[in-house]
Design brief:
two-stranded antiparallel sheet
């Protein structure tokens, strides 16, 4: 759960949020289908068609699982790519966010254009001679605008079907977005969320330089455990399963920390790189191994804590704000934060936009396109097909997959002894917390319906 741009960040443990618009939409659609089934007495054929539609609604398309797998692999490779860039950590974090912001900006333009119907207004002003040679869809938009008044009059005399109701709801949502988008409260929350995201990336990317990849990924993905702690402090409703998962997760964190305590007990600097050399029977090339450190583990854990506040702050806006309208300003502000932090805290000859140079542009663009765009956008795209809890559970596979990738590529050695013991406890605890939270929210929704 490391890259949390909400598109641009580790999709998040969506099952942890009580406001699940997609599940609510699913329940409402199912209710509509059942109502139609009861009220329809015209014959068996109509009932069969309704049942068929209901089954199609439940069926998850194959491409959704394909996207889920590709997105998981893309996001798991983020740590490997970052470790492969030879630059100071805060500067790497700023490059990662800068490049992602560029991609998100195009999505922002699309959403703003759609919200304010700018594309339709532009097409409306085009000359008819040009419209005739343009694609059919553009011609339809043009003709619809010319006949707008006639359609409005016809709608008053005709019954409004379900599709028209949805269009009316979309227009209402657009008006709500227009009213709230530039309010001071919205701007302040966006700025605060962006700064929190900047802290998350700063802590996590620095931890990659101070501890092993496996430790960094395990500690930074422990955010479901941190969420439970916040819920306990806030005295929010919580289930026994969530408490058990939290306890197991903390046991795993402590066991994993033994690697850092025992392997570095004679080290003077907990953040230093190990000078040990490993050799394999099949390869005589020497490879430096970085030992886990308490300092690096702590930084990764702080990254997980930042994710908790990022989720709670972001959930206030994502209830009504479109994806890119939220993701772009948050990611852009985070990139500014990391850039300023790098200028103040790091001494380097590299330029703040140095990622555009030949030495760094390929890896940085990879981070933006694959972990950022394909990973997080892919996860957000399939939420309408796959339950959020399935996505959240799938994301728990990032630490083992990312660690394996690091070993295969050669930027990381095999995990140390206590990591093999504590890692399953951490992942298992997060798994129990995620599923228990999903079941608790589901019961709450059912009780509210009854």
């Amino acid at each position: 759960m490391k890259e949390s741009e909400n598109y641009g960040v580790e999709p998040i443990p969506l099952s942890m949020l009580s406001n699940d618009d997609d599940e609510n939409m699913y329940i409402n659609e199912t209710t509509i289908i059942e109502t139609e089934k009861i009220s329809d007495t015209s014959g068996n054929d109509n009932n069969k068609e309704i049942i068929k539609k209901e089954k199609e609604h439940h069926k998850v398309p194959v491409f959704a699982y394909v996207i889920l797998g590709l997105a998981l692999l893309a996001m798991s490779s983020s740590g490997v790519a970052l470790k492969s860039i030879d630059a100071p950590p805060l500067l790497k974090a700023s490059w990662r966010l800068q490049s992602t912001s560029i991609l998100l900006f195009f999505g922002l333009i699309y959403e703003i254009t759609t919200i304010y119907n700018i594309h339709k207004r532009v097409i409306q002003k085009l000359p008819k001679s040009l419209i005739s040679i343009l694609p059919n869809k553009i011609s339809i938009i043009y003709n619809n605008f010319n006949k707008l008044k006639e359609e409005e009059q016809e709608e008053e005399n005709n019954e409004i079907n379900n599709n028209e109701k949805k269009e009316m709801e979309k227009e209402k949502n657009k008006e709500e977005i227009k009213n709230k988008l530039f309010q001071w409260k919205t701007i302040l929350i966006l700025c605060g969320t962006g700064i929190i995201l900047g802290f998350h990336f700063s802590f996590w990317v620095v931890s990659l330089d101070k501890t092993t990849l496996a430790h960094s990924l395990l500690f930074v993905t422990s955010s479901p455990i941190m969420i439970v702690l916040v819920m306990i402090v806030r005295r929010s409703p919580i289930s026994k399963g969530e408490i058990i998962g939290c306890i197991l997760g903390f046991i795993g964190l402590i066991i994993t920390l033994f690697d850092s305590l025992f392997l570095n007990k004679n080290d003077d600097n907990s953040g230093s790189y190990s000078s040990s050399i490993s050799s394999s029977s099949s390869n005589s090339n020497e490879k430096s191994i970085q030992n886990p450190t308490v300092f690096g583990d702590f930084l990764a854990l702080m990254g997980a804590v930042c994710i908790v506040f990022y989720l709670f702050a972001g959930s206030l806006l994502r209830k009504w704000m479109p994806l890119f309208c939220y993701a772009f300003p948050v990611t852009f502000i985070a990139s500014i934060f990391c850039s300023i932090a790098s200028l103040i805290l790091e001494e380097t000859d590299l330029f703040i936009f140095g990622w555009v140079s030949k030495s760094f542009i390929l890896l940085t663009c990879y981070l933006a396109v694959f972990p950022g765009f394909i990973g997080h956008t892919g996860m957000n795209a399939i939420i309408k097909y796959i339950e959020p809890v399935v996505i959240s559970v799938t994301l728990l596979l990032e630490p083992p997959i990312g660690s394996l990738m690091g070993y295969v590529v050669g930027v990381e050695g095999l995990p140390t002894f206590f990591t093999y013991i504590g890692g399953p406890f951490i992942i298992g605890g997060c798994l129990i917390v995620t599923i228990s939270s999903h079941l608790r929210n589901k019961k709450l929704q059912q009780s509210q319906q009854n």
